[in-house]
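Worked example

This section walks through a single chain of length 136. The input is the sequence exactly as stored; nothing has been trimmed or padded.
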Amino acid sequence: MTIPSRKLWFAGIVLVGAVSYLAYAGAQQGWVYYVPVDQFVKDVAGQKHRVRLMGTVAAQDLSIQAAEMRATFALEVHGCRLPVIYRGTIPDLFKAGVDVVVEGKMGPGGTFEADVLLTKCASKYDAKHQAMEKRP
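Given that input, the structure is written out below as tokens.
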């Protein structure tokens, strides 16, 4: 093999390795689904890492400060409650009784500090979607 072809092979191997690593790292983040609040509260070791949680917004303790882009609320699942502070853009569908997914980590005071808030689609959208599917 000549020196230019060796360099080309080496560059190709480095490129394939870099792309493979980036694909693996991206897939690891994409595979993180969500953990129900009751499981998260029981798993003390998991509370040290960034995680996505799913639960229902409790009617009590719900406070939305849209101008400050902040919401404080509690997530409930099976009677288990977890206080949450969210900072960021508040979705229009966010209100008490809605199922949400939050992403963040446990704060030092026992409150979950979220920086991502996703609301699940309301049932009124499901009815419209089903009606659209029934059309010929």
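What to look for: The radius of gyration is 22 Å.
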